[in-house]
Structures are given as C-alpha cells and as structure tokens.
C-alpha cells in the first residue's frame, strides 16, 4: 500500500505537475452523469441524485478482494464531508478553504488552491464542487462563490453572494446546468433569511434569486403570521441540489426555521422551511413544493438533497430528513405516496417546553447531509440514518448579530447510545427490506449502490464497508486509519478498472470521541 504524501511533497508535486487539459464535462456529459461509468461528476453523482453506478466489475462475489492502493492526506484536521468527484482520471474535492485535484488511481497531487477569505468565516464545512466546461465552482465559508480553472486551480472569478458577518455562508456543493451555477445560502441557526440563486457560469453574474423565506401571502395566509419574523426566518440549503434535466426543474431541500426551538416567535407554517421546493431552473419561478414539517420547533431540517427515480411507471421524488422519516412523492399527481420512519421517533408532535422534552431523534441524528441512494438493480432506497435521542428545551429568544439564534437548547444522549444505520426500503411502498446497524457508531456519510449488488458506505469510527444490496450482509470492511467517515463514496473506472474513493476525516467530531485524524482520501480497487 502506498503511504500518503507529506505536505512538502504535495506542494512540490503540485508545482512540478504539468497543467492538465480539462475542457469538459459538456452539457451532454452532465445530462448523462447518472448512468456514466467513467466519472462521478456531482456530489450525488448526477442530476437525479441517485448515488447509483451501473458498474459491476467489483461485485458481491469478489468485493472481499478489495484493497486500498493509495491514500492522500490533506494535512488538515477540519471537517470533511464531501464526496470525491471524478472527471477524466482526476478527483476533485474540497475541505474548508482548499480545493484539491489528485490522480484518481494513484493519489498523485495535481494542484491545490487555497482560498483566502475576505470576510467572517461562519462555518467551514464544505461539501464539494460543480464542474463544467473546464471550470470548477465552489462556495466558501464567507459566502462567496468562486470559479477555478479545472486544469490548474487558477482563480477565474469570485462573486460575493451574501454578508457573512450576519451569519451567511455557503456549504453546499453547487450544480451547473445549461450555463448557470446553482447554489443557496446556509446559516439558519444564526438567524439569516435564505435565498436560492442562479449565477452565470462564465461571469459569476447573478441571473435570478428566489426567496426561501417568502413575505406576503402569495403562498397562503398561514405562511408567516408574524411578518417581522421573516427577517430572521432561516431556511438553509446545506448540501446540494437535484435537477430533472427532462423538464428543467430544480429541486431544493430547505432546512429549519429560526429561532430553532421557539416556534411561538414565528407562528404559521413557516414556508419554505423543512420543505423541498421545485423551481424552474431557467427563470427561478416557483412551481410546487412539499413541506415535511410545519412550524418546526426541534431543528429537524430537510437537509439532504432529494432523489428522483421511476418505479412502476411512476415518476417519484424521495427525501429523508433529520426527523427520521423517509418521504416519497408522486411527481405527476404532486402528492405524498408514503412516509416511513427510518429510526425510532418519539414526541415529535409535542411542543418544546422550558422544562425540557425527551425526543427521538435529536438534531444531530436522523438523516443529516446525505440522502437516499436509489438502487436501480433492486428498486430500493438505501438511507443512512442515526437513531439517537435527547432533550430539547425552550429558552430566551434573543438575536445577536453573528451568533447562534436557537431560542433554546438541545442536550444529546451520550454518544455511545447512538446507533448508525444503513436501511434499505422498497422504493415503491416504503416497506423495509433490510437494516445494517452499528451500535455506538454513527453512519452519516453518503451511501452508494452499484450494479454489482453492492451498497457502500462508511461509519464514524473510520470503517469503510461494502454490503450485499439484496440482504444487507457485510461483505467487506476496512478501517481508514481511524479517520471518521462522514463524506461519501464514489466509484468510477480508470483504464478499464473500477475504483472506489472514500473521504474520511474529523467530520462532526464534536459529538463523538476519537483521536485527532487529518482528512484523507482513500482509493480502493481489486488487486
């Protein structure tokens, strides 16, 4: 096994490596990304967000022979929640302020770009890039959207999206579609009022804005009954976005309202928080929405991007939430087909009190930033989800610029009581097929399914695992140096050989124990 490269050799190799010639991917390649075998172009692989690859060279019969061939160490112990994205043999990924390009088969560093913030960095979590026409796009902790040359990492443009001093930042992996870059703000827990945006991919100029916290009564009289509360209404977009390329519809998952726990401060349904909103990607015009929780008082974001899929001749959209539910909707009839609990759920309908309310899950559990994978081979939705309870308490509602705006607090049960799960559900009915559980260890990163009947994922003790997609049986395990796995697994071919890339590092380390391990990308193949 190759050892990871030290920081000095990383820098030297980056300086000596010849410039890459990256001119794509084209719009046609992006449209076909969900089914591509030679790339992994978006956070959730393709526009439909399925996290499924038809690759079957590595399969349930031979995955036990998987070996780690190289490890790239970022030398950074900050959060690491991206999914490695691959194009033309190059992996692209982000961590806090840096964007990396490495060889997708050998881990050889090709270039690294370090962003220098000009404003306050609110939260340094970043989930990845968009890539199109030779350009890399990413958001920053001080709420800028930047464009880099995909071949060299050289900056091309920098657009300030919002004022980070009042709590705005960009953590989501953007998507590019028909010449526009799509990204929305995060920062609900700091009392921001979020928006979804489209920017011109060539210039960074804003093309349209959609208010995720609407004012007025255009969406119903019960939207926000206290008009003043919309100024700090929340509504983050945390992770990434989904597009139906056939219809040009953009799907946006929107997080919790603010203040998080004080629902009486903001009476009404609090649209579009805890919702999936469908917009016209070209114009930003509203089309329809589904709200998973009205007037949320437990910080139960709809955080992960939704997944689009077809089952039994029906066009569906599914989304999993921090509240521990998996929802499926009929996109033709625009109605809910099923709502299935993924873990234990208790006291969710009871109001938060000053004395404290025991609830399951707590706000660090359920499905966080990684949504379902649609396994095309078995017609299932495989969901990462955490069973973990806590106590929520109502408190003072006081907004201080740049500080958390909770209106209460959440006490988590001991971390050892958390149970990580990867759960397979029938994509048509929501019936549970199988469950893989890791008591005491959370599973929060993205799961990936393949045409080889494999379900791949990682746990927060550094364990990379492969399961049989038909039964949930464990077929392969390897620990990535004790580095917490909270990012996703991507798979692709280089030179006709199938590889897997796994991100590991100190993801959300504050809620778990473990040694301090720097971020790394581990690459596996059959040897």
Describe the structure.
The protein is globular and about 60 Å long. The longest helix has 10 residues, at 7-16. The protein is built from 2 helices and 36 strands. The chain has helices at 7-16, 27-31, and strands at 52-53, 66-73, 85-87, 90-95, 98-103, 109-114, 130-132, 135-139, 144-149, 155-160, 175-177, 180-184, 195-200, 206-211, 242-244, 249-254, 275-280, 286-291, 307-311, 314-320, 325-330, 335-341, 357-359, 373-375, 380-387, 390-394, 408-412, 419-426, 432-439, 448-450, 454-458, 463-468, 474-479, 489-494, 497-504, 520-526. The model is unreliable at 1-17 (pLDDT under 50). The chain has a single domain (7-526), classed as Methanol Dehydrogenase, Chain A.
Fill in the keyword field for this structure:
38% strand, four-stranded antiparallel β-sheet, disordered N terminus, 3% helix, mainly beta, 527 residues, five-stranded mixed β-sheet, Methanol Dehydrogenase, Chain A
Named at the architecture level, the CATH assignment is 8 Propeller
Strand content: 35-45%
| Low confidence ranges | 1-17
* General form: globular
Output the strand order for the largest sheet: 1-30-31-32-33
E-strand count: 36
The number of helical elements comes to: 2
Sheet having the most strands: 5 strands, mixed
* Total of domains: 1
Q: Look at the structure and give the mean pLDDT.
A: 94
The level-1 CATH class? Mainly Beta
> Could you say what the CATH topology is called?
Methanol Dehydrogenase, Chain A
From the alpha carbons, calculate the radius of gyration and give it in angstroms: 21 Å
CATH superfamily: Quinoprotein alcohol dehydrogenase-like superfamily
The proportion of residues forming helix, as a percent range, comes to under 10%
Q: What structural category characterises the helix and strand content?
A: mainly beta
N- and C-termini, Cα separation: 11 Å
Cofactor: pyrroloquinoline quinone
Keywords: Oxidoreductase, Signal
Organism: Deinococcus radiotolerans
Family: Belongs to the bacterial PQQ dehydrogenase family.
